[in-house]
Amino acid sequence: MLFRRRKNLGFWERLRAFFWPRKALWRSVPYYTKRILRLSATPHAIAAGVAAGVFASFLPYLGFHFILAGVLAWVMRGNLVASALGTAIGNPFTFPFIWASTLAAGRFILYGSQPEEIVPLQLGRALSQLEFVHLWEPLLKPMTIGALPVGGAVALVFYVLTRWATAAFREARRKRLADNARRRAAQLEPQPSAGR
Fold it and tell me: For the chain, how big is the Rg over CA atoms in Å?
């Protein structure tokens, strides 16, 4: 077989590679960056799509991030592919930080700096019985409210960075293509004869 390993991985090595890949994690960041910069849309559409995906990742509704990002991108006239790529900001490594920040911000907005009574959440029991009502008040409501300022601020930063990077990438590409065209034109020009 063409791309087969010489030595097969054992069970523990495959399990480790599944949760912590050696190269793919660090190779995916430049891949996503180049993939976003090469989209054929306006810089605003690309940046709005990325911002929509980033904002959707801060909402606590796992499984709906692509849909929410697509709806937000459509409302903001953003690129749908960029919105899907923007949701990559929410991943198993960043979700703990995202959830902690949105929960803290939401509790501060709803209850103030000193919450009077926050009912302790028995997450295992609520999830085993799938009681949405018991999850909404102590967990999902504060996280949703907290996602508005926290996710909005991070999405705004990503919008500005993506719009600037897209414009700079396209300008550099335009200059590179113009230089290549000038060089080709100079090579095709007839050379004056040396005897005259």
Answer: 25
